[in-house]
Amino acid sequence: MRLPFCDHHICAFLEAYAKTHKPLDLAFNDYLRAHKSIGANDRRIIGNTVFEMTRWKTLIEYLCQTDDTLDKLSTFRKMDLQQVQEDPSIPEPIRFGVNNYLYRRFKEIFGPEQTRKLCHTLNTQAPTTVRVNLLKTTREALFASWENQFEMTLCEKAPAGIRFKKRTPLFALPEFKLGLFEVQDEGSQCMAALVKAKPGDHVLDYCSGSGGKTLAFAPAMEGKGQIYLNDNRPWVLLEAKKRLRRAGVQNAQFVLPRKKVDWLITDVPCSGTGTLRRNPDAKWKIDAPLVDRLVEQQREIVAEALHHLKDGGHLVYVTCSILPEENENQVQYFLKTHPLELVEKPVSILPEEGGMDGFFAASFKKQTLL
User: Fold this and answer.
1) How open is the CA angle 195-198-204, to the nearest 5 degrees?
2) Looking at the DSSP assignment, which residues form a beta bridge with residue 318?
3) Which pLDDT tens digit goes with each residue over 93-124?
4) How far apart are CA 126 and CA 275, in angstroms?
């Protein structure tokens, strides 16, 4: 039987993805690169279907009578989510789209009603948000230039943020190539804003990834002082170099500092429970042993990074998790274990439907040991 074009590629991708250990977004991008004949509209249809099927993986498996990928696709298309979620015969974790471990932990932390709301939010599509590069333009100017092209709103909490009402191919825009903006969730922008570096300060972005947080706080430094980016993945640092060059950030180095810094940010590896809308495959892999390993890794990273922070300097600890094991509990551990004091009340953000992802951050000051 010859399948419709999009159905063929949906099934082909899902069957190939089942045999790989790659994250969903990377695997899907690789598939698109290998099938360049797929047009933009078909890519959107295929991508939306693949991500939605991944979000509801266990529900589809529960309702489908076979392991055949095409049967699962057919089951997915026939599903009435509202009706399914009201069916008490289906186990709650399955009908609310998370694994058993996460559903139990969410109920323990947030209670039944908030858990159902949270699960609903985590199974919606995340909005597209950009951060205007204040080194090159203003939010008002960029918003005005786009006003007749796109449906947008100004972010309420991130002063450089613009949120799009529909998914838009932003990377093809001339403004992106000119470095006038970067894609960054509003919550992530708010976390980066906790680094209140001034011109002349020295800042270490210890788990920098591809430099998203650095790009957000760099404009406030006005090109004065130094930013140091560190990550144990060379390929993400290569991407960071491209992004900083495009943005016009010139006071950055990709080495550890020789002298101790004024500001240290550790955006540590975590469960990613606050960003599962963007990484729906990740939620099926989260369990207690994984969280325990991450907690130990987070403690090791902070201990290593603190060697680079001067007395009186500031540490900003960040996760994209909503689990207290990685957040509030870690704050208490750091206060007991290291010469740190809290500067202000930690910031905790839950994912919002149509809004921010979930994040946590705590700001500390390193005390002087006598």
Assistant:
1) 50
2) 267, 361
3) 999 999 999 999 999 999 999 999 999 999 99
4) 9
